Amino acid sequence: MRAALVEYSSSEEEEEEEGRHRGGGEQGPSRAGAVRHRLPLPADLPGDPEPEEAVTDDSSRHGGRVRSFPHERGNWATHVYLPYRVREEFLELLELLVYRARSHVPSLSAMEEFHLSLSQCVVLRYHWIQPFVSGLRARLAAFHRFFCVADQVKVYTNQNKTRTFIGLEVTAGHFQLLELVSEVDRILEEFDLPTFYKDPSFHISLAWCVGDLSDRLEGQCLQELQDIVDGFEDSAFLLRVQWEQIHCKSGNKYFSFPLSRR
């Protein structure tokens, strides 16, 4: 039940400090530079376009995570996703799953933030951020809130096999997610950036470890984890998720796009 990771790239996770947390197909390299001259510099975007602090690629500072593309001053790692609001009961289920999985992979770490991705991690130049966000807001304005069910345990790896994840795959609500991804992809195409993966496995990641340890987590371990989910008293309630807003994170900036009520 292994799949290439839909939600996460190593660089994205490092930018979002996800090894505390951050799905399949392959994408070509970003061609972002081709449109740089077409985009005006916004006058009202908050923040410093060139942060003063130096950025290093020391993986030891990030739980062993490795960037999928090098840091470059003025480049902003950007990601579009649906945030999952955690309930106390969900944390109880997470604790049970991680405890069991650690009997197979002791180095496994629980996520601290949870979401479902609608894009890859892409690179935006600073002066692209506001036009990109404005385009997203316009395309997503017509979408209504909707439900998904994410109750199938699955093992994922990122594209370069440097990290392994345990996630809950969506088993209902796939069509609505594809509609959202289609609109996000249109904006990415306008900026000549990589679109989302073909035939994605939408999921919420629960835990991660460094390296490709999928063989240890599949088979018996995966069945044990699925049994825990199926037998958990509040699973039907917890894993039927209503999505109410879409988020975009670009560097240290967060943007929110509420989904309308019907």
Descriptive account of the structure:
This protein has helices spanning 10-15, 88-101, 129-140, 174-190, 214-217, 220-231, 235-238; strands at residues 2-4, 75-83, 109-110, 115-117, 122-125, 146-157, 163-172, 203-210, 240-243, 245-250, 253-258. The strands form two sheets. Strands 1, 3, 6, 7, 8 and 9 form a six-stranded mixed beta sheet that branches. Strands 2, 4, 5, 10 and 11 form a five-stranded antiparallel beta sheet that branches. The protein is of the alpha+beta class and 262 residues long. It is globular. The chain has seven helices and eleven strands.
Entry keywords:
7 helices; five-stranded antiparallel beta sheet; 11 strands; 26% helix; 262 residues; globular; single chain; six-stranded mixed beta sheet; alpha+beta
Strand content: 25-35%
- The best one-word shape is globular
Order of helices and strands: EHEHEEEHEEHEHHHEEE
Regions with little confidence, pLDDT below 50 for 5+ residues: 4-62
Count of DSSP H/I helices: 7
Task: Please tell me the overall pLDDT.
Answer: 81
Radius of gyration, taken over Cα atoms and rounded to an integer in Å: 18 Å
The main pleated sheet reads as:
6 strands, mixed
Structural class: alpha+beta
Distance N to C terminus: 36 Å
How would you name the oligomeric state of the polypeptide chains in this document? single chain
Helix content: 25-40%
Extended strand count:
11
